[in-house]
Design a protein that fits this description.
Helix content: over 70%
Largest sheet: none
Structural class: mainly alpha
Shape: elongated
Number of helices: 6
CATH architecture: Up-down Bundle
Number of domains: 1
CATH class: Mainly Alpha
Radius of gyration: 18 Å
């Protein structure tokens, strides 16, 4: 109850220091509930109760989720530095360019955890909770961060801009 909110607050502070933007830091942190949803669903479907090892799994999962969100937002920001690229183009191209690397990263991480998630040996109860959270959260991170984060970024940025700030009409 204390460690996870403190962890999220520290991550927000670091993201804000990196981007100097509360909006971008918040958008990156949006990947945390995306990953949490998958972790909670995986625990539910496997019939596993929340535990300390599951909480550790969530904390490590948040790191991967934040990293994936950070890569998406950084790429979109990088593309926006080019004044000839509209907000819409930057979001689409940024999401497209980050999808394959994120897919590979998450698939390799999930494949590495499967043996621990299905193990039944002595002591496997602890690792099963942690890896179940991680695998479920990684799956939802891949899907939701890849699809929803770019869309939410576009909406949040477009809504926060004044009409005269648009560089073309395709952003509407």
């Amino acid at each position: 109850m204390i460690i996870i909110p403190v962890t999220i607050a520290l991550i927000f502070v670091l993201l804000y220091a990196t981007f100097r933007s509360a909006l971008d830091a918040g958008l990156v942190l949006l990947s945390v509930p995306f990953s949490m949803a998958g972790g909670l669903m995986a625990l539910y479907f496997r019939g596993i109760h929340k535990s300390v090892s599951a909480a550790v799994g969530f904390i490590s999962l948040f790191g991967v989720a934040v990293m994936s969100g950070l890569l998406y937002i950084s790429e979109i920001r990088r593309r926006r530095r080019d004044s000839s690229v509209s907000l819409r183009e930057a979001v689409i191209l940024g999401a497209q360019s980050q999808f394959l690397p994120m897919l590979i990263l998450i698939l390799v991480a999930m494949l590495g955890m499967i043996p621990a998630a299905v193990a039944l040996d002595i002591g496997s109860d602890i690792q099963r909770h942690l890896t179940t959270v991680s695998i479920g959260g990684l799956m939802s991170t891949l899907g939701l961060t890849s699809l929803a984060l770019p869309a939410v970024h576009w909406l949040a940025t477009a809504m926060g801009r004044k009409p005269e700030q648009y560089d073309d009409h395709s952003d509407h």
